Amino acid sequence: MPVIRMEFTIQAPQQICFDAARSIDLHMESTASTREKAIGGVTSGLINLGETVTWEAVHFGIKQHLTAKITEMEAPRYFVDEMVSGAFKRFHHTHEFVPLGENETKMLDTFDYSSPFGILGKLFDWLVLEAYMTRFLRTRNEYIKQAAEAKARALQQESKKS
After folding, report:
1. Mind listing the UniProt keywords for this protein, alphabetically (predicted)?
2. Per-residue pLDDT tens for 74-117?
3. Does residue 141 contact residue 5 with C-beta atoms inside 8 Å?
4. For position 68, which CATH number holds?
5. Into how many domains does the chain fold?
6. CA distance 158 to 103
């Protein structure tokens, strides 16, 4: 059962980071390389506790569907999404946001998953999937960081004009 952990420091308030990470629209922008789009459940805006989203994407040249549900949430500190159906045997994805200051947040991303197909799945993890998922999550988290920082800068500019 691989566990991928990442940590990013974002120059933006905790709430902006929290909202960026649960934005369906931002998710689709950040995963354009896999043509990921929301096709069921919450398909735009911010996803909330108890809600689901079904994603359609192309991974490894194969069109796939994955449904995830927000199973835990304490705004703006953290939320958890878990797979309801899809290519994994299971996953538990925790997104945490720790304020470091008024305009700085540490984002912690923990993706704990299991692949199907027993020993073949474990071999696929070792050879391909863990590295693939690490790159996928890093790209997505870097996009969240850039978007949150851009929003924070825009809000600071607006408040200076007022």
Report:
1. Cell cycle, Cell division
2. 999 999 999 999 999 999 999 999 999 989 999 999 999 999 88
3. no
4. 3.30.530.20
5. 1
6. 15
